[in-house]
Amino acid sequence: MLVLGLLSSVVRERDVGSNITFSFLSIIIISSAVLIGPVGSALVGAISMAFDRGGRSAVARLFNASMAGLQGAVGGLVYLAVGGANLAQVHGAGVLIMRVGLPLMVADVVQMLINALLLAGIVRLSSGVPPRRFLVQMITNSGVAYIGYGVIGFLFLILWVPADVGPFSAILILAPLFVARWAFVQYGEEQRAHERTLSALVTAVETKDPNAAGHSARIARLAEWMAEPLSMGTQEVQALRYAAMLHDVGKIGVPTRVLRRPRPLSLVDLEALTRHSSLGVKVVRDIEFLSGCLDGIRHHHERWDGLGYPDGLAGDEIPLISRVIAVADAFDALTTDRAERPALTPTQALKQIEQRRGRQFDPHVVAALATVVDRHERPLTTATEEELEQMRGYLDHDDPIAWEHVWTAAPRSRPVVPRPEPATAGPQRHGGDQNGDETPRIPDESAVAEQVRAP
Fold first, then answer.
1. Cβ of 409: how many Cβ atoms within 10 Å?
2. Residues 239 and 374 in one domain
3. Quick one: which of 61, 173, 210, 359 is 20 to 30 A from 423 by CA?
4. CATH number for position 317
């Protein structure tokens, strides 16, 4: 069993995408708990992890070895405590399932919980991630896998003792696991290809608009933090991250003079700028793995009161990931140095956003931001004197203060989208192709004035 444990460390695949590592050590540990008892299982787990270098520090190896040893010992004790039997003394399929299979599965679940709890504590100490969030993610992502480990371990034990195959059963069990490892490696390559695609698109945006360098990555991190107090699921968080990374990808289609020219901007300029959210959907809509984030990209400039663009959605009509990105976008803009003002502190930025909840921002999402600001330390985004000089006159359309100033100072240049037409106007409620083929509508001056007077 120790040889198998060491082998699992050697063939471990450490990067199969989305922070997933593929190893069959858990199968060896749970099998050892039944085959050689708590002490033997603890030794197998601890020694196997102690020799698993993988570029880790001595402290990390010590922690991993201790955790694996604890899993083995507790798993073995739980197996005995719930009535687990000695394999050599059990005969018959029904007895094997009741006296070995079920106790083994209970021990397997306990081992999973030990692993999740210890890692949650370490991650909380090292990065401040709330333990509840990490536990939910671990159990959601690894729970089914651990059940599978337990089933494979049970089959391994049946072949070893009752079927009298002996150590050769390891080959019969591990051969399909190597096939699974190969499949996971291919999956990892696909995930890395996705990340390269995201990186290329973000680089293209930041090349077009150098003043926004690093903005997308900061928004993605902040949005992921906000997902936890909003109780968003794993798939939603992935879509949120992709959408946050690419929310400004439509700037690729905005004329460079609009992005870099000093204010004041003309009506045509502002119209071109407000098109970036719908243009972003055009850019990425044919990329299959990004299909879940299209709404987030398109609607991240909608407002809670319905005065946003491109579709004038209001309240819960706006997709949740769009509402999260809108708040994260504004917070990052406010905490970034600009030529006309220094970066606001997180507390000051949060106050500005709270003043706009219920009008521009979803109150629940603003509350989530307040929770994140309290939990996480987030440095301000500073700029050198040379960088500040280069961005002089730059309009950060994500900054709610700067955007309101432009709105007030240039009456004929306010990109307001009227409220949706009545149902009698046609079957399409908000007008426009949801794939982003239309441009925002700019009303005449009287319509703008009417919107500005609204609460």
1. 11
2. yes
3. 359
4. 1.10.3210.10
Query: From CA 444, how far away is CA 428, in angstroms rounded?
Result: 23
Burial class (CB in 10 A: 0-12, 13-18, 19+), 128: exposed
Flag whether 133 is in a domain. yes
* Distance between CA atoms of residues 404 and 397, nearest Å: 9
Q: Are residues 124 and 240 in the same domain?
A: no
Same domain (yes/no): 183, 213 = no
Dig out the tokens for 246 from the structure: 């690419």
Position 275: which residue type? R
Q: Say yes or no: 292 and 338 in one domain.
A: yes
In this prediction, residue 134 has a pLDDT band, given cuts at 50, 70 and 90, of confident
Task: Give exposure, 189-203, as e/b (b: 16+ Cβ within 10 Å).
Answer: eebeebeebbeebbe
Residues 221-233 as b or e (16 or more Cβ within 10 Å = b): bbbbbbbbbbebe
Reported confidence tier of residue 264, pLDDT bands at 50, 70, 90: low
Query: Which residues span the domain enclosing 128?
Result: 2-189
Query: Among 157, 189, 221, which residue terminates a domain?
Result: 189
Question: Strand, helix or coil at 381?
Answer: strand
Q: Across the strands, what pairs with 357?
A: 361
Average per-residue pLDDT for the chain:
81
Domain count, the chain: 2
Same domain, 178 and 244: no
Entry field: residues in the chain? 455
d(CA 85, CA 279): 65
Segment 219-246, tens digit of pLDDT: 999 999 999 888 888 789 889 999 999 9
Inter-residue contact 8 to 51 (CB < 8 Å):
no
Amino acid at 404: E
Same domain, 70 and 216: no
Tokens read off for 99: 């006296």
- Give yes or no for a contact between 129 and 123, defined as CB atoms under 8 angstroms apart: yes
Instruction: Please say whether the beta carbons of 279 and 253 come within 8 A.
Output: yes
Are residues 185 and 251 located together in one domain of the fold? no
Distance between first and last Cα of the chain:
71
Query: What SS3 class is residue 338?
Result: strand
Residue of 330 and 257 predicted with greater confidence: 330
Residue 412 pLDDT > 60: no
Amino acid letter, 25: L
What amino acid is encoded at 218 in this protein? Answer: R
Structure token digits, residue 259: 């992005």
pTM of the model: 0.67
User: Quick count: other Cβ atoms within 10 Å of Cβ 208?
Assistant: 18
Q: Are residues 297 and 179 in the same domain?
A: no
Does some domain include residue 203?
no
Within a domain: 153? yes
